Structure formats: C-alpha cells, structure tokens
Amino acid sequence: METLLALLVGFLTAAGIYMMLNLNLVRFMFGLVLISNAANFTILAAGRYEGAVPALVPEGLKTVTTSVANGLPQALILTAIVISFGILAFSVVLILRTYQELGTVRSDRMRIADTTDYAPKATAPDGQGASEVAGS
Amino acid sequence: MTQTLLIGPVLLSFVTGILCYVFRHNTWVCRSLSVAGSVLVLGVSAGLFMVVWSHGPVAMQASNWPAPFGITFVADMLSAVMVLMTGIMGLLVTVYSLGDITQPLQRSGYYALYHVLLAGVAGAFLTGDIFNLYVWFEVMLMASFGLIVLGGSKAQMDGGIRYVAINLVSTVMFLMSVAMLYGMTGTLNMADLHVTLRDIDNPALLTVVATLFILGFGIKSALFPLFFWLPASYHTPAVSVTAIFGALLTKVGVYALIRVFTLIFTHDIGFTHNLLLIIAGFTMVTGVLGAAAQMEVRRLLSFHIISQIGYMIMGLALFTPLGLAAALFYMVHNIVAKTNLFLISGVMQRLGGSFHLYDIGSFYKRTPFVAILFMISAFGLAGMPPLSGFWGKFALVKASLETEAYVIAGVALAVGLMTLFSMTKIWGEAFWKPHPRGDDALLTRLEPHAAMTLMAPIVALAIFTVLMGLLIQPVFDVALVAGNQVMSNQAYVDAVLGSRETAHVVP
C-alpha cells in the first residue's frame, strides 16, 4: 500500500510541477492543487497505512487489541485540506481580478511591478477600486 | 498567569482583528479599537518577556493534554524577544496607519487583516509544534495575501500574483517535509522531535528533510537564490503594509530556520550548517548588489532586506552561542532600522511627490528634521558606531573569527560598506540634490492631521536605534541568554516535556 501511495505522490508531484512550469496562471493553479494533494498523500503514507478499522477501544478494554487506522494523519490532512481550499478560493479570485486589471493570465506578459524604470507614481495605492476580494 | 501571557498576544490580536472587521465602516471606532488592541498586545508581550527573563523558558499545554500529545505553546528567550518586537512594531505601525491608510482601504478591511497578520506572526513565534507552525504560517500568509492586494491597483495585482504563487510553493514544500519528519519519528512536537531524533539512525533521509526545510523556509525568508518574489512585490502596497511586511514576515522565516536548525536538525552540522553559511554569503552579496541598481526607494530597501537576512542566517550557520546571540540582536536591530526607513520613505513620498529618486530632492534644505531621522536609521542599518547595526556586525564578525570562518567575516564587512554606499545614494539623490521641479514642488510640512501619526512612530524608532546602540550591554546580555538557551536546548525541552514538574515552579 505504501508503495502504491509513494508512486501516486511521485506522479502527482511530477504532474503538478509540469503544470506549474506553464506560463498560464490558471494552469499554475491547477498544478498547485495537484501538488497540495501530493503533500496530503505524503502525510497519509507517513502515518503508515494500517487498514480501515477505526481506532475505537472495545468496551471493557483499556486499549485497542487489533491493528487500527492511525487517526492523526487524517486530522492533519483535514486541516491541510481546509487551508488549501481557502487558498485556492483566494487564488482563483486573484487570478480573475488580475485578468480583469491586466487583461492577461500569462505571467510573462505581466511586467508592471518588476521593471526598474517603472514610473512609480502609479504605485501609491489610492484606494480606487478597492476590491471586495481583498476584504473578504 | 503564564498561560494567559503565552496565549495572550495571539488571542488579543485575533479579537482585535474581528472587532475591526465588524466596525470597519465606522472610522473612529475601528481606529480606536486597533490602537487599543495593539497597546494590550504590547503589554502582554512585555509581561511574557519579563516572565521568561526571570524564570527561563515557559510552556503551556492546551487543555492540559501533556506533551507530545497536546498542542503546546512555548516561549524561550528567542521567542519572547521576537514576540515583544512584534508587539512594538504592531503598535508603531498601527499609529502610522492612522495617517497613511485611506478610508476605502479601511472599509476593505485593512485593520482586520493587519491584526490577523500579527496574530499569525505571534502564533508562529510561540508554537511548540511543527504542524502548528505550518498552520500559523498559513494564517499569516492569508492575511498578507489580503494586505498586499488591498487597493487593487495594477502593480499590486502583478506583485500580488508573484508573492502568492511563490509562497504557496514554499508552503507545500514545508508541509511535505513535516510529513516526512512525522513519518520518521511519529511525533510533531518540536521538543519531542529533538529527543526522538537521537535514536533515529537514518542520517541520509534526515539530511534530505533538512534540505527541504531550508528550501521551504528559505523562500519565506528570501534567501539566495529564492528571493526574487520579494523585491517584485514589496513596493506595491501601501507604505504601512510594506513596513510591517519588511519588519516581520521574512523574520518569521529566519526564526523558523533558527528553531529547526538548532532544535531538530543538528545531526550533520558539517553539511547543513555549511550549506547555510554559503547561502548566507551569497544572500548578503546579491541583495546589496541588487540594491545598488535600484532607483525606486522602496525597491532599493527591499533588496536591502534580502542582504540583511544573510547576516542573520550567518549567525545561525556559525552555530555558536555568540553567533546565535548576534543573529537575534541583528534581527531586532534590522526590524527597527528597516521599518523606520520604510516609514520615512512614505513621508518622503508625501512631501516630494514620488518614491523615485529621480523625481525627488531638496529634503535636507527644506525638511532637515526628516533628513536627520533618515540619517540615523540609514547609518544604523549600514553599521556605523555607535548605532545598533555596528554592534550587530561586530558580534557577527567576532563570532566568525572565533570559528575561523574568515571568508564570511570578510564578506560581511564588505557588504556593510556596500550598504553604506546605497544609503549615501539615497542621501545624495533625495536629500542633497535640488528637487527636479524646483524647490517649490516640495512641501515643507505634512498635513497637520497626518503629521503627528506619521512622524511619532518614526521618531520613536530612531530613538530606539540610538538607545540600542548606546545601551548595548543590557541588550546584548538578553541576546546572549537567548543564544545560550537555543544552543543548549535543555531548558526548552524541559519546559515542554517535563511540564508536570516545572509547571508548579512558575507562578
């Protein structure tokens, strides 16, 4: 089972990195989703796969007698999923707003913030069009 | 009592953030809440510092679940100093925000995000559990994502994309390396990891995990060659946001590196710490060279953040009590001086009309007070005696000479000289040169309602820099205590794992 998980993690990471190397930000985001899931599977594998029996102590006993599933990785993965869901939602809206503002989702065509001779007067945020994106 | 102090900075910041969000449409209430919250957080942080100073490291187990099973909050001298600095910077930048942040930004939730950011930073400094460290990083990141695009200008969107993308990559790396560490040891508590890893005989895998940690935290703290996101994004948001980012965010990465590379990964110092030393050298040099090419004040200062991070990592890589003490001292000094330079850049933009060195001038003639405040922080940053930066560099060079690391000592000194060159460039362009549109283009004073809130934090930080330099002995004593604690680890581990015995000692 661990071998299978390891192969899956490797495949997801490879696919994720391939997607993230794309100049298109939407593809980058999909790559990030894949690689986050690879991280989640890594946690699952790290906790050792011990079958699907829930970790419940039978009545009258003080400890479990058979091999049971490790509950901690599940708790960790749940936390990680919740966080990555929030981040994904933010990233989608950020990319959408960027597309609306700059008219492109290709990272090589965004040269506004990164050029040395860039006219700095536009940098002062004047609050115009303050986005609900950022506030929520 | 100790329990309240340990959780206080985090909880109070969260509560302030939530209240600020609820009252974001009411200017007066929101601002008063924000200042009151920051004052309370500073008070609690100072209390925590005093307790750690008199009792040594203290720990709290959530719901009394003993470590390593429960969630642990722990403060040793390093954490306590960093939390105290978070409190001080939080308050001063809040005051600056009162004059800097416009109504639309406030209505979009600036103060709410700001306080949640501080909560995340304090949580990262105080947690004793490596998975919780990941969670606190995420809290901090989410708030910073919101702050960096707040206002929604084109440049902010562009910079925001870079900032968000690379930080998410770093987060995934961090999470994967935590998973592998958990797989090797079966524990996530950092003190317990320290104990457990003594019996794990797989140094090769451990080194791989350590390298992954360097990558993950290296992106966050903008180490060579992973720093490109920082100067591409830090100059786009409001000045208050840049200032608090420059003060705290990269330092959280440095703190995390110091914590894991003194407590967890000490099995192969010859590889990991030498790697860190090489990275530190390159970080210093590339940062300062990048700054030399910049003409936009905030971009120039952003490159200097990178260069200064190199000094802190150098202290860690030397791996002696003096080196770590110097790293902590340097962090505190850098937080103060760099934040102040960012704050001053905001005032320069208001007076002169631009952040760009070509577009401004005449500050020395028309506003000598601002010029003197700038000079104090700039000389402090470059390391002129008797200001704080000199002692930081002095201690670092002394530590490196003691370990016979002569090359890095030379690099550190040369980079200090280059830093001075950058600062004189700002001085020459912005302060001496006549204003390109004539002297009348420069305002000689700020609008009265903004003057007080903008200038008060700047003056306070300038005094802080001078005092830190003049009262070096007591300040450096604190740093040395922290350096010794971090190097020996015993007090930290006892505070966390032996909590049932030591809990009664602490009031």
Strand tally of chain B is 2
Main beta sheet of chain B: strand number and arrangement? Answer: 2 strands, antiparallel
Question: Residue share in helices of chain A?
Answer: 55-70%
Q: Termini distance of chain A?
A: 41 Å
Task: Report the principal-axis shape of chain B.
Answer: globular
- At the first level of CATH, the class of one domain in chain A is Mainly Alpha
What does this structure look like?
The complex is a heterodimer of chains A (136) and B (507). In chain A, 57% of the residues lie in helices and 0% in strands. With 136 residues, chain A is mainly α. Chain A has a domain of 93 residues: Helix Hairpins (Orthogonal Bundle), CATH 1.10.287.3510. In chain A, helix 1 packs antiparallel against helix 2 and helix 2 packs antiparallel against helix 3. Chain B is globular, with a radius of gyration of 22 Å. Chain B is 78% helix and 2% strand. Chain B is built from 22 helices and 2 strands. Chain B starts with a helix and ends in a 5-residue tail after the last helix. The longest helix of chain B has 32 residues. By secondary structure, chain B is mainly α. At the A-B interface, helix 2, helix 3 and helix 4 of A face helix 4, helix 6 and helix 7 of B.
